């Protein structure tokens, strides 16, 4: 069951996803459909702001996915409280709670998809301060 989520402005981060109710470890936070950007369109997309909100859909084929719902709005944390898995066959992203998340807490993911992996270089390359 999807949890009730909302966006809130966070100083220094911009928009962030929060939950309005407690989410238990392992619970599904959100299931989001994805829009596939084929490899032939990726170069054009890289010249636009939405590229910063995309995930690799198939890295070997250089295709990207734009995640609907709140999926592209989760902020980064090296040690996040939520994880995500891309279901390529069903073209959806599934977000689950890595730990208990109290109500009105920001939900963050690690953009690398790997808990604890330092992904700050992505921000540094774009001139963005990592908070």
Fold and architecture overview:
This protein is mainly β. The chain has a single domain (5-113), classed as Beta-clip-like (Beta Complex). The chain is built from 2 helices and 9 strands; from the N terminus they run βββαββββββα. The strands form 3 sheets. The protein has a 5-stranded antiparallel β-sheet with strand order 4-5-3-8-7. A two-stranded antiparallel sheet has the order 1-2. A hairpin with a 4-residue loop joins strand 7 (82-87) and strand 8 (92-97). The longest helix is centred in the N-terminal third of the chain and has 7 residues, at 39-45.
In short:
The chain has 131 residues and is mostly beta strands. It has helices at 39-45, 120-125; strands at residues 5-10, 14-19, 28-37, 54-58, 63-67, 75-76, 82-87, 92-97, 108-109. The mean pLDDT is 84.
Outline the fold blueprint.
Blueprint: E1 5-10, E2 14-19, E3 28-37, H1 39-45, E4 54-58, E5 63-67, E6 75-76, E7 82-87, E8 92-97, E9 108-109, H2 120-125
Parallel strand pairs: 6-9
Antiparallel strand pairs: 1-2, 3-5, 3-8, 4-5, 7-8
Give me some keywords for this one:
Beta-clip-like; mainly beta; globular; two-stranded antiparallel ribbon; 9 strands; 131 residues; 2 helices; five-stranded antiparallel beta sheet
Q: How are the strands ordered across the major sheet?
A: 4-5-3-8-7
Structural category: mainly beta
Total number of domains: 1
Name the helix and strand elements from N-terminus to C-terminus, one letter apiece: EEEHEEEEEEH
Give the C-alpha Rg.
Answer: 15 Å
Overall pLDDT level: 84
CATH superfamily: SET domain
Helicity range: under 10%
Q: In oligomeric terms, what are we looking at?
A: single chain
- Give the terminus-to-terminus CA distance: 31 Å
Q: How would you sum up the major sheet?
A: 5 strands, antiparallel
Stated plainly, the CATH topology is called Beta-clip-like
Shape: globular
Proportion of β residues?
35-45%
């Amino acid at each position: 069951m999807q949890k009730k989520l909302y966006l809130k402005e966070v100083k220094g981060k911009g928009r962030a996803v929060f939950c309005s109710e407690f989410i238990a470890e392992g619970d599904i936070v959100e299931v989001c459909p994805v829009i596939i950007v084929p490899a032939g369109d990726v170069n054009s997309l890289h010249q636009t702001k939405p590229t910063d909100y995309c995930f690799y859909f198939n890295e070997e084929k250089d295709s990207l996915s734009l995640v609907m719902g709140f999926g592209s709005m989760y902020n980064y944390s090296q040690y996040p409280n939520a994880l995500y898995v891309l279901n390529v066959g069903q073209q959806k992203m599934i977000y689950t709670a890595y730990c208990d998340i109290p109500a009105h807490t920001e939900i963050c993911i690690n953009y690398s998809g790997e808990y604890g992996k330092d992904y700050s270089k992505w921000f540094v390359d774009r001139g963005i301060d990592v908070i």
